[in-house]
Amino acid sequence: MARTPLLMGNWKMYKTVAEARAFAEELGQHSQALGTAVDYAICAPFTSLHVLRVMLPAQVKMGAQNVYPEKEGAFTGEISPLMLAEFGTQYVLAGHSERRTLFGESDQMVNHKVRAIVDAGMIPVLCVGENLSQKESGQTQAIVSGQVTQGIAGLSSDAVARAVIAYEPVWAIGSGKTATAEDAETVAREIRSVIAEHVDAAAANAVRILYGGSVKPDNIAGFIQQPNIDGALVGGASLKASSFVEMASAIG
Ligand code: PEP
Predict the structure, then answer these.
(1) Which family does it belong to (predicted)?
(2) What is the pLDDT of residues 175-191, one digit of tens each?
(3) Would the annotation count 214 as a binding residue?
């Protein structure tokens, strides 16, 4: 089964509503550059989701960067999966390295979020990746495999097939350094074999795997040409509509 490529932006804690509106307007002016055989999404701060829902070109879907894995309750400051789904959110990030390191999210919490996102009918984007010392001590495969198996624990084969996994080496995020396309492909291939072993071959073949970590218009092509890499999760370079369009042209 052919996997539809996915170009996903992660705005992190950037952009006011006015700035998000300006981005959507500019992207709208170039919407003919967004190929129809590719999926697009922007994971924005909660405060910008409304303006994006109204103004993004129809082929660009909304994503959230976080969610709390309960239906409702006394969880001051949190947003539930139901609230995001009702709002028209299609994708939700879970386990981004900034949440794991700055907010202490464990693999168990990431798994709760992944399952809650699926239960609400949205698509989880499970982020995994090793840090620099883990890379230097040869632990990349062990770390990534552990994060994947714990992140998807309890999901059905169908849910895994619809999910997205983003391989983002922590040392490459926001650093200007990237994994080589070959190294990223090796990890992506390993992720598929871990899923084949722990879930089944159909899920392993269907799940979309993105590379993330300092992706830019001039390096995205090398990643998406790899057979097991289906797109990119892009932070800094997704903040400008012109770069998003350039990356869309490279992917489509
Ligand atoms: C990210 O935020 O997931 C990311 C990969 O950031 P950047 O592209 O800026 O490295």
Answers:
(1) Belongs to the triosephosphate isomerase family.
(2) 999 999 999 999 999 99
(3) yes
